[in-house]
Amino acid sequence: MTEQREFRMPATGEGWRHYKGGLYTVIGMARDDEGEAIVVYTDYMWGLAQLAPIYTQKLGRFVQEVENDKPRMRYEREAADHPFCQYISEAVRL
Description:
The chain is α+β, with helices and mostly antiparallel strands. The protein has helices at residues 59-62, 83-93; strands at residues 15-18, 23-31, 37-43, 54-58, 65-67, 71-73, 75-77. A hairpin with a 5-residue loop joins strand 2 and strand 3.
């Protein structure tokens, strides 16, 4: 029996980790021309720098499960007490 994971909508300023290890900051949500929800995010290493690359991913793909060595979410939210999230929450307050 597969474990059912709880869906959680990404929120602005949250830290999310890709299943391959990369850390990303959610900038916000958008909609494409067909009304589908899109997650807008940037690479943690760039922080909130002016020239930081900005990425988009359809919400369905952002929160989907992937099969690698074990079933898991493509992106998983980092715990609020993780240093990465503390850094992001400080940066968003500026």
